[in-house]
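User: For a reading group we're discussing how well predicted structures match intuition. Take Taste receptor type 2. Before you show the prediction, I'll give you the sequence so everyone sees exactly what went in.
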Amino acid sequence: MQPAFTALFMLLFVLLCLLGILANGFIVLVLSREWRRLGRLLPSDMILISLGASRFCLQWVGMVHNFYSFFHLEEFSKGPAGQLIRFQWDFLNSATFWFGTWLSVLFCVKIANLTHPTFLWLKWRFPGSVPWLLLGSLLISTVVALLFFWGNYSVNQGFFIREVYENMTYMERVISMEIHYFLPLKFVTFSIPCSVFLVSTALLIHSLRRHTRTMRQSAHSLQDASTEAHTRALKSLIFFLILYILSFMSLIIDAVGFFSTENDWFWPWQIVTYLCTSVHPFILILSSPRLREVFRQLLLLARGFWLV
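Assistant: Thanks. Here is the predicted 3D structure of Taste receptor type 2, as structure tokens, for the group to look at:
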């Protein structure tokens, strides 16, 4: 790829991350203000703050991770600074996936209209379990990050299965570990939250579609308004599903090493990887009356400032 196109995609990646940082930071600030004012948080707000904070940090770490590895690959791969950045990146990626999953489950138990006893029990117990689920997600993410850190450290030191690595170069060790260790580890650790997300999202989509079909059979104005609201919720949910799956697939493909820093498509692929963390916060803002109103006030304030 020509240097001009590389620079263009680098710029687009930075702009995408900055937009995501602003949106996620906005969500965290607004809900933190509500927390300070009321002295408590709803389960949905707990998840949104956790998700916004993890995405906010992930995008900063992601920019450092990508630029450091792109311009100083050898130092990033073998130096302690690169090890620390990768540890943070792995931790935040895992935490972000789990928080997104719990958000989907919460929407499912709050909105879906199902009568199965297991679902009714989950609907009753889940909101009160949110703080423990968030803490458990942080613990799981720490374990996952340590497993990745151990793999990276083993590659650098060359002592993991010495018999196999004895006659290997550094890059051969990296490729071997990516195929036999990092890829299975990423697939297993990220497949669990992704599976829970897919099940809860599928149940919610099924419930919303069934409710929308029922409401469309009536011409009552209130029911028409409810139908439109459910249709909008269904569209935003499907969009979130697409972004979530895209993020999951990008992490799995990244583990295979298809788009390394030497690849011409490295920066376009990074844009795809960070689409979910940058675009989904705007969907959350526009779908929440509280966040949307504060966001509208900020836009009016910014417009007045520029007009002055």
